[in-house]
Design brief:
Structural class: alpha/beta
Number of domains: 3
Order of helices and strands: HHHHHEEHHEHEEEEHEEEHEHE
CATH architecture of the largest domain: 3-Layer(aba) Sandwich
Oligomer: single chain
Radius of gyration: 22 Å
Strand content: 25-35%
């Protein structure tokens, strides 16, 4: 079982499990859920009604069972409408709030333990899903728009070429929407104290290094305090150009990309185009 980074994340996941169980209850009887989850109806009923929360271990067990019987991948695939040219229409996916809720909870489980302080998406189709994920996480949503807004004084911007069309698109994000990293330095009398400080900062989720020193002048520790860790969310990844632009926007903000999440991805050539930072996890529900 994946270890949760904080008690808050653990609580969010347990609440998300109960929400998924409530959705499953709309489709299945308590008897069927009892057979699948192997828990008494009385216990399941207490979870559904919000009288009690499952503990972390039980929540993970329930979650895994529900993902299997609900099968988001097949549900999304079933709803896609294809035309004669091989293009699909995903309107019935991105407009179904219940389905998007399930997808949002799926994302929360997959990125459990990752530090996420902002959710970033590109206007427009990814906004509903990104909004739900941001709400569950309790973090702010940032939308990269193809235009500048008059009331915003400064922007970060990134231009990309959309596939083989030869057309370009520029995305704009208010400069202060994503907080950048800050480099600080601390001095310690002994190497032992400095190494202890490095360990302490790393345990708190920051990058830290011993920059050297000596017994006479002391030892210096450098800490990169990354204020925002951004989860990039979209409905579809096709060429990877849009997602690559979003990654670059986060880099320009000198923040951190914690991961990329999408409902659908077409092929896998886009993975080479997106220069994903080290430790950046990519999760897709349906791969076409």
């Amino acid at each position: 079982m994946m270890k949760m980074a904080t008690r808050a994340e653990d609580l969010r996941f347990r609440l998300a499990t109960v929400e998924l169980l409530r959705m499953a209850k709309k489709r299945y009887t308590y008897k069927r859920l009892q057979e699948e989850i192997n828990l008494p109806v009385t216990v399941l009923s207490r979870y559904v009604k919000g009288h009690v929360l499952p503990n972390s271990e039980r929540a993970r067990e329930i979650w895994n069972v529900l993902l299997r019987i609900i099968n988001l991948e097949e549900e999304i695939k079933r709803r896609l409408k294809w035309n004669d040219s091989g293009f699909f229409d995903n309107t019935s996916v991105i407009g179904d709030i219940e389905l998007l809720n399930q997808a949002a909870n799926y994302a929360i489980a997959k990125f459990a333990g990752k530090r996420i302080t902002k959710v970033l998406t590109a206007a427009v189709d990814g906004i509903p899903l990104a909004t739900l994920i941001a709400k569950i996480l309790g973090v702010n949503l940032v939308i990269a728009k193809p235009m500048k807004e008059v009331g915003v004084s400064a922007f970060l911007e990134e231009t990309c070429i959309l596939g083989e069309s030869g057309c370009t698109m520029t995305f704009f994000v208010p400069r202060n929407a994503i907080r950048k990293q800050k480099k600080i330095r601390e001095k310690y009398r002994t190497e032992r104290e400095a190494l202890e400080a490095v360990r302490r900062w790393k345990n708190r989720g920051y990058k830290s290094y011993l920059k050297g020193g000596d017994p006479l002048r002391g030892y210096e520790v450098e800490i990169l305090r990354i204020y925002d860790s951004v989860l990039i969310v979209d409905d579809v990844i096709k060429t990877g150009d849009v997602q690559s632009a979003l990654v670059n926007l986060v880099k320009k903000a000198k923040a951190e990309v914690s991961g990329i999440f999408s409902l659908i991805a077409v092929g896998d050539s886009w993975r080479e185009k997106i220069k994903m930072p080290e430790g950046c996890h990519v999760e897709v529900i349906l791969q076409l």
